[in-house]
Design goal:
Chain lengths: 635, 568, 178
């Protein structure tokens, strides 16, 4: 960049020059390769969100296919093998390719803005994470298109997924897809923890951090502690199938139940990985719609931390019917019920917030209300299935299907949809349609309850999960038809949502900087934010910065304009410690992701792929870390 | 002469009475003179399979019986050379090769005066004229399509011929029958499972143990219908005591190997029967292993001897059991007097002499779908039916042993007639200490070995003790060895072209010359229990022997060859 | 760029489809036609049924069929005589030596009609499709180089490397003396 003097600070020039110089330094190059090479968290976050919603759409279609098949007894819409693939894909897609990534994606976009920094920590790793995620998703869906989709359930229990009972490569594709998505999730978790601990705006002490950021911090720790368990499990599964190890072969010293332990040690925290960000979204959105800060900040934070810790003590409740010792089962019943306490504390804090505030019934708020109703219902059936005798009766029936859809859709998807309506203006710069939004909320809420509530009854009537059809003389036919028809209403709601999201991007009413009059920092910049987020780093004096300083925000200055620079602050009190450079755009994350994908996909077919495939990966990593000679390389 | 030769035969069917009068010229072979033994003649049988039949002596002929498809050679020795006198080649049903679990060879004919009684693998009992080899009668004794074969020689008991069927691996119903010696007409048939009438349990049945089993224990101790394919084959040694008028035999292990498919005591398998020779009615029965878990057959060597036992003169029955114990029983009552282990045993802790029960080890129980490791002895058997012999001179029992252990994993088995009904994955292993095989000289009174010779490989041929104080035996890697009968010192050995899996035979020619003959021929790389085309890269090949015999090189020439040795 | 990707996808589709497809139930006429092999006079070698060729040889390259063949191998007592390919009273199936021919038609005739030296006939015990599945599986037991579709190890005692690992060609045993 000629003409820009070395070590130019933003105190040395006027405001317009600051913004112009910052735009030049932080901009993403135009064109195809510029888009591939970007490390801007907002662009990557947007991609991540859109990709996750595409997977939601695909997974929803799979759900509709299942409902079509089950609408009538002895249906002929899908054969048994295709049905097995469909329910496995539906579960795996929703859990691994939609639910966790979309929360991570919202965090990737919002957390740097909410904490007042210019980019997320480790931006190139962020880019790498997206490409790996995309590769994993493509792996799974292309396999499904080739009739190679996994058919072993989304949790792939051995011995069904093991070498004897799952011929071919279907189960290996599932196991390797997990590796892809877990790498992506771990990468984002690491970035979020570092961003939240070290890159907060000066003055944003721990008790001034927005609750969504707290939620993502706790979630990131859960990710880092839980994901390794399933990576160990899926790697052991691939080794058993490909190489003939005996991790899960009891005849040669392995253990079948080991799989379930490894999987659910990850699997239970996984649902809190999905749920906690949603609670963070609720806590962050609520102030705008009740015109007051959220009640019980400390209680909410501690509840989230407690949920994070307790979530590691629950996993055996997925294994109540495996014949474990009674004392162990009792412990996990107690802990499964105990986690309802911090969740309940959160609910009560929000109710208190609503009680004392002046509600504004806009679309995000409607979704918040839908969340309350649906999640509490799901939580109650959760406490029911936490009890061993009841779970023994309803395990593997539609009662459990109803329960987890209530807590997942109620507890995660409704807040997510509300969050989309809420932050869409910030991301896109235009508002979504309020009128359509009410229709969407209504259709989805009513359609969901009509579709999923009867599943409780079906489960108690004995309808098992994962069956591709049922006989006509069983009493489940009419309720199944009702559920399938109601699912069309749910689908209509989502369809309307997608149409609105796409249309509003072009022709929605322009949003200003802060259309909801919200107190947190992301609303302090333009919609959509410039590449550098904030022209000057804001300084925070309270938990609701934009309400405390309505006219003018204090800012910090002295950052360089000639290179990408952010402020590093201390962990507890956010006292500025240093100026740190932030990496430029780079193609190396893309190449690293490509070579890693080749290695991982190759290892599905031959163990030698790990050996030969690691050479291109090493080359890509060397290229990534090689000093580029740019100003960012200076200390 | 024939009597002396018959005295030392340990191979099944011929049945010996000990303490024959006089001293044999075989005393010429002594520890001092045996060093001079040299090879004088050989004869090739032309059959490539494993030869388990010891040569038999019938008058002045040496009988060599090849594995299926059988040829019976009658050889004469003239001036140190073997000459074929006659041959007999019965027609064979080659489909029997598909239902012969453990090799195509079986012991040679029983000699009864001027007649030979021969069992063929494919289920024929044939009477031959000893001088000419002409068949006198030929009756079917085993039904090959049902999985039955004959694996032992017939027993001549007076004017009856006793024949037992084999085929535990194929889910047969074990059977022992008596034929009239003159015509082959069937006299009586008894089974190893089923109703009391079928089995021969009647008013004369007086077992020493387990008296209160109730009616039809051979049905009630099985799951419904299980007794119809319950095994209990009568494929081992048959003995006749003319004084007591009893026939002694063992019954094989129950079918399938997987114990969880046959809950119950599984009578009357895994045991020893004493039957009335005239009617087949059972006199007593001793079960070696109730509800067998480890493949214990009662088809190990059986020998009779009358001697003092703890100061009292008793009629003894010695059984070298596949459970790994040497059982000494009173053959009049069926009482077990002693049961001591002769190979490493951990599947059981011992035999309770008060109840006769096998005291099983809890940690070696086998259960469907789980693997139990390092169970000793292996199901392949610590001893072959012809693997033991008594010496009247030293009083020791010489046993050729396989000291193997196993990993066993029972699996579900489906019964389909004519196909194997086993239900277990097996892998043989080395024993916890010592070598894979040994020749054990067992002191019956003391209940422990007098001496042992360790062998690198299992010893599958039986021993031949001679009155001069020398014991001959052959090893799997082809050595014919002569050792001192009292001290086990190796005195002489010679390497032959193939492994030896049959006991040697002592033979005196009409001109007085004495010979030690051995029929070598181990068949394929994994020995007599498998065929020629085996691949030891599979650990479960040949019932698990692939795992321990993997490094053993295949023989230069596995086919049968008779070697004749003589003193100069 | 897009056209090349589409071409790659199309090729992958053909390759991937065949290996992973699962035909849980054959059309009855196809199942009946699979029985019409034309063996030579001595029963060794011969022509496969036309429909077998038309189906594209699914019993040799389809992972599901090979897995079914492995299941049938245990369920129909093959292990009692042939062990896990190492042989016992029956000959070894993994040493590359075949008495009656190694090609699929010979194996099919061996299984369906039995052979004179003790191999029982499975004509009355197995359907034609199941016999073909066994034929396909038996061919993978002794493979010197592994294919992707070959089955993997069973959840039971380890006897030899699984079919998808392939026993090392260097360790082939010496031929039997016949």
């Amino acid at each position: 960049m000629t003409g820009i003097p070395h070590d130019l600070r933003d105190t040395e020039v006027d405001r317009d020059t600051v913004e112009r110089r910052l735009a030049e330094t932080w901009r993403t190059r135009r064109g195809f390769w510029g888009a591939i090479a970007t490390v801007d968290h907002k662009i990557i976050g947007r991609r991540y969100i859109v990709t996750a919603f595409v997977f939601l759409l695909l997974g929803g279609v799979l759900g509709l296919l299942m409902r079509w098949q089950l609408a009538t007894p002895e249906g002929r819409a899908l054969g048994p093998d295709l049905y097995n693939q469909v329910f496995t894909m539906h579960g795996a897609n929703m859990m691994f390719l939609f639910a966790v990534p979309v929360m991570e994606a919202m965090a990737v976009y919002l957390v740097p803005l909410m904490v007042g920094t210019r980019n997320i920590a480790f931006p190139r790793l962020n880019a790498f994470s997206y490409w790996i995620y995309l590769a994993g998703g493509l792996l799974l869906w292309v396999a499904f298109a080739l009739d190679m989709g996994p058919d072993i359930g989304w949790f792939g229990y051995v011995p069904l997924s093991g070498p004897q009972y799952a011929p071919g490569k279907r189960a290996d594709i599932w196991a390797q897809m997990i590796t892809f998505t877990e790498i992506a999730a771990l990468a984002v978790a690491v970035e979020i923890v570092v961003t939240v601990f070290k890159q907060r705006a000066p003055g944003m002490t721990l008790d001034r951090i927005p609750l969504f950021v707290w939620a993502m911090l706790v979630t990131s720790f859960i990710v880092m502690l839980a994901m390794p368990a399933i990576m160990v499990g899926s790697t052991s599964l691939i080794l058993d199938r490909l190489v003939g190890t005996h991790f899960f072969n009891p005849a040669e010293g392995g253990d079948v139940l080991l799989w379930q332990h490894l999987f659910w040690f990850f699997g239970h925290p996984e649902v809190y990985i999905i749920f906690l960000p949603a609670t963070g979204m609720i806590s962050s959105m609520l102030p705008a719609f009740v015109r007051r800060p959220v009640f019980g900040y400390l209680a909410l934070v501690l509840s989230m931390v407690t949920i994070g810790i307790l979530s590691f003590g629950l996993w055996v409740h997925h294994m109540f019917t495996t014949g474990l010792p009674r004392l162990g089962e009792s412990f996990f019943t107690a802990s499964s019920m105990a986690i309802a306490v911090p969740a309940g504390v959160q609910i009560f804090c929000w109710i208190a917030t609503l009680w004392d505030g002046r509600p504004v019934f806009r679309t995000p708020f409607l979704f918040i209300l839908a969340f309350f109703f649906t999640f509490v219902l799901g939580g109650m059936t959760g406490v029911m299935v936490a009890s061993v005798p009841l779970d023994t009766q309803v395990h593997d029936t539609y009662f459990v299907v109803a329960h987890f859809h209530y807590v997942l859709i109620g507890g995660a998807v409704f807040p997510l949809l509300g969050a989309v309506y809420y932050w869409y203006p910030k991301i896109v710069g235009r508002m979504m349609s309020e009128r359509l939004g009410r229709w969407v909320a209504g259709l989805i809420f009513v359609g969901f309850n009509l579709a999923f509530f009867p599943m409780h009854i079906l489960g108690l009537q004995g309808m098992p999960r994962r069956v591709y059809t049922y006989q006509a003389d069983l009493p489940w036919g009419p309720l199944n038809m009702f559920v399938s028809l109601s699912s069309l209403m749910l689908a209509a709601g989502f369809l309307l949502f997608f149409i609105d999201a796409v249309r509003s991007a072009r022709s929605g009413p322009p949003a200003g900087d802060n259309p909801w009059d919200s107190p947190s920092l992301e609303w302090a910049t333009t919609s959509p934010p410039p590449p550098y987020n904030f022209a000057r780093i804001p300084v925070v004096t309270g938990p609701s910065p934009l309400w405390e300083n309505r006219d003018e925000l204090p800012v910090a200055s002295g950052l360089r304009l000639d290179r990408r620079e952010i402020v590093i602050t201390s962990v507890a009190d956010a006292v500025p410690e240093a100026r740190e450079s932030s990496p430029r755009d780079s193609l190396w994350p893309f190449w690293a992701a490509l070579t890693t994908s080749v290695l991982l996909i190759g290892s599905i077919f031959s163990p030698w792929a790990v050996v030969w495939g690691s050479i291109p990966v090493a080359i890509a990593l060397i290229g990534w870390f090689w000093p580029k000679g740019t100003p960012e390389d200076e200390a | 002469m024939a009597l002396w030769a018959a005295l030392f035969l340990a191979v099944g069917g011929a049945g010996r009475a000990e303490d024959a009068p006089g001293r044999a010229p075989a005393a010429a072979i002594t520890p001092e003179t045996v060093r001079g033994l040299r090879l004088v003649s050989t004869f090739r049988t032309g059959n490539p399979q494993a030869h388990v039949a010891s040569p038999q002596v019938a008058g002045d002929r040496l009988l060599v019986f090849t594995p299926f498809p059988h040829t019976l050679f009658a050889l004469k020795v003239e001036a140190g050379h073997l000459r074929v006198d006659w041959t007999f080649r019965p027609d064979g049903n080659r489909m029997v090769e598909g239902v012969a679990c453990c090799g195509l060879g079986l012991p040679g004919p029983a000699v009864a005066g001027d007649r030979l009684l021969l069992n063929t693998l494919d289920g024929h009992t044939i009477a031959l004229d000893a001088a000419t080899g002409r068949p006198l009668w030929d009756v079917p004794s085993a039904a090959v399509p049902r999985g039955e074969t004959l694996a032992s020689a017939p027993l001549v008991a007076g004017d009856r011929v006793i024949v037992g069927t084999a085929g535990d691996d194929f889910g047969i119903r074990g059977r022992v029958a008596a034929l009239e010696a003159g015509s082959g007409r069937p006299l009586w048939t008894r089974f190893s499972t089923g109703s009391d009438q079928d089995v021969g349990i009647g008013p004369g049945f007086a077992p020493f143990y387990d008296r209160d089993l109730g009616r039809d224990a051979g049905v009630t101790s099985w799951p419904p219908g299980g007794w119809e394919r319950g095994g209990g084959s009568v494929s081992g040694t048959l003995l006749h005591d003319p004084e007591l008028g009893l026939v002694f035999h063992g019954t094989g292990r129950p079918a399938p190997i997987n114990p969880d498919q046959r809950p119950g005591g599984n009578r009357w398998s895994s045991g020893l029967f004493a039957r009335d020779a005239a009617t087949g009615a059972a006199r007593w029965f001793y079960q070696l292993a109730s509800h067998d878990l480890h493949g214990v057959s009662g088809t190990g060597p059986l020998l009779m001897t009358d001697r003092d036992w703890k100061g009292v003169r008793r009629k003894l029955l010695i059984h070298v059991g596949l459970s790994g114990y040497v059982y000494v029983l009173d053959r009049v009552t069926g009482e077990v007097l002693s049961a001591e282990p002769f190979v490493p045993v951990n599947a059981s802790r011992g035999v309770d002499l008060a109840t006769g029960a096998l005291l099983r080890s809890d940690n070696k129980t086998t259960r469907i779908g789980t693997m139990t490791r390092d169970v000793c002895p292996s199901l392949t058997g610590p001893v072959t039916p012809g693997g033991a012999a008594l010496s009247p001179e030293t009083g020791l029992l010489y046993i050729a042993t396989s000291r193997l252990c196993m990993d066993i994993e029972p699996r579900p088995a489906t019964y389909m007639q004519g196909t194997p009904f086993t239900g277990a994955n097996l892998r043989a292993k080395r024993p916890p200490n010592g070598s894979l095989g040994a020749l054990v000289a067992w002191d019956l009174a003391a209940g422990k070995p007098a001496w042992t010779i360790q062998e690198d490989l299992p010893v599958l041929g039986g021993p031949l003790p001679l009155p001069g104080g020398v014991v001959f035996y052959g090893t799997y890697d082809g050595y014919l060895k002569a050792v001192g009968a009292r001290d086990g010192r190796v005195l002489w050995q010679e390497k032959l072209a193939s492994g030896i899996v049959a006991a040697p035979t002592f033979f005196t020619a009409p001109d007085g010359a004495q010979y030690v003959s051995v029929l070598a021929g181990q068949g394929g790389a994994l020995g007599p229990s498998a065929g020629l085309e085996v691949d030891a890269r599979d650990a479960t090949a040949a019932r698990g022997l692939g795992n321990v015999l993997r490094g053993v090189p295949p023989p230069e020439d596995g086919g049968g060859a008779l070697y004749l040795f003589a003193l100069p | 760029m897009k056209r090349r990707a589409a071409l790659v996808m199309a090729v992958a589709m053909l390759v991937g489809c065949q290996r992973e497809q699962r035909d849980l139930r054959l059309d009855p006429p196809v199942a009946a036609a699979l029985d019409q092999v034309a063996p030579t006079a001595n029963g060794i070698g011969g022509a496969p049924p036309d429909v077998y060729v038309a189906l594209g040889g699914p019993y040799e390259s389809n992972a599901y069929n090979l897995g079914e063949g492995k299941r049938l191998y245990t369920w129909f007592n093959c292990k009692g005589c042939h062990a896990d390919g190492g042989g016992a009273s029956g000959p070894a199936l993994m040493d590359g030596w075949w008495r009656y021919g190694a090609d699929p038609v010979s194996l099919f005739v061996s299984l369906r009609d039995g052979r004179p030296n003790g191999m029982p006939a499975y004509r009355d015990k197995l359907t034609t499709e199941q016999i073909w599945q066994l034929v396909g599986y038996v061919q993978t037991i002794g493979m010197a180089s592994a294919t992707t579709a070959a089955p993997s190890r069973n959840d039971e005692m380890q006897s030899r490397p699984a079919e998808n690992r392939a026993p090392a060609a260097a360790d082939l045993p010496t031929p039997p003396s016949r």
